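For the sake of transparency, this paper describes our internal protein records without simplification. The tokens are whole numbers drawn from a learned vocabulary of local backbone shapes. One such record is reproduced below, unchanged from the form in which we store it.

. . .
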Amino acid sequence: MSTPPPSSPVRLLLCDDHAVVRAGLRALLAGADGIDVVGEAATGEEALAMAAHLGPDVVLMDLQLDDGMDGVTAIRQLTAGGSRGPRVLVLTMFDTDADITRAIEAGATGYLLKAEQPEELFTAIRDAASGRSTLSAPVADRLLNRLRSPRPTLSAREQEILAQLARGLGNREIARALFISEATVKTHLGRIYGKLGVETRAGAVAVAKERRLLP
């Protein structure tokens, strides 16, 4: 059931680096009751400046912005003022664990995928203006699955080696830094890969960042 529109229209600021996407959203939202698009920004910097000037209730924010500030940084700054600032609703094509976690931790009220139906978007915007959170079904599923999955348990030495991996060090450099042999490094790397379900150094670092295993 859709949320009824508030008595006064929700003032909405769009932020997406593609002009065609912004035009399409504006045209789509023109037919939505209780939503008034007050501005469009192509960059995170523009979104901050326009939000300060226009005072929107909600900022509809893409995460992947080509130039300058990324969406997560913009979210963090937009929501830094707490209740005085706008709510930020993410609208993106990306649903990786890392993207979702970073956006929510930065202060996003909701996280939607661009494949959503128009009515779902309208409802999410109105909910955001009222302080209610909305997640796309695939995003909610990912978060639940992550919560249900036990965190891999790494030994202290494995955590040390993983931290060195994240710094971009090779096996020989890791061995020297930790005063162990290269053979020992390789043995620990094999165990780390198995616990994280990956096959490469880059994969290990990516999963470790997603699961917040790095210091």
User: Anything to note?
Assistant: The longest helix spans residues 182-196.
